[in-house]
Fold:
Amino acid sequence: MSANEDQKKAADSQLPNDINENIEVSIEKKLKALYSLQQIDSQIDKIRIIRGELPLEVQDLEDEIAGLQTRIAKYKDEVKLLEKQITEKNNSIKEFNTLIKKYGEQQMNVRNNREYDSLTKEIEFQNLEIQLAEKRIREFTDELEVKNQSIKESKALLKERESDLKIKKNELKDIVEETEKEEKALIKKSEAYSSLIEDRLLAAYQRIRKNARNGLAVVQIERDACNGCFNKIPPQHQLDIKMHKKIIVCEYCGRILVDDDIAAQVKQNL
Ligand SMILES: [Zn+2]
Structure:
């Protein structure tokens, strides 16, 4: 037997061990790929949430602006009505004064006291009407001032909100452009890591992720608990997870669990 064949035989006898090591390495690789994929997909989720919230802020501002414009238009209508009412009252006062003048002239030509007294009563009545009209004018004028003040305030607020909207829209445009670029790069990375994971495992990852409220399918053990559902993981279970001999899921929530070691290595490389 040659020295070479000896070596070969020795290598053969070590084969089972090698396979075991290979399994561990490959499970470890899978776990790292899964955890990496999770980190990247979570970043994509975050970007999408941020981008989803900005249009809502813009919508809120647009709604507020529309509300203010409606309010200002309503106040303006009310101002017009008040001005019309004041003009009407002023016209009435002119008419009352004309009547008073007419009755005064008629008093010069009365035939008896009864006619004179009756005209005096008419004049008194018209004077009362004038007082009443003046009182209404004062009330309308006060109301007018309040309305004009409200218009002024609403207009100032409108101007402020319109400028806010302009800023928000620019911000949104910038963020959308920026995050789309970022998102594209992340999607590429996500696809690269996905390609490292076998189809069945990847499908499981996607299924767990879809069902999890926070989009987490692979979580780290933190303070002896699953970082997805926060239930305590028994020590023996934790030990198994650390061994990297198989992929282990949380018995409460079904998420794939990784130990600190995997998490730390992934976070260092990302
Ligand atoms: Zn869990």
Notes: DSSP finds six helices and three strands in the chain. The chain has two domains: 54-192, 198-270. The mean pLDDT is 90.
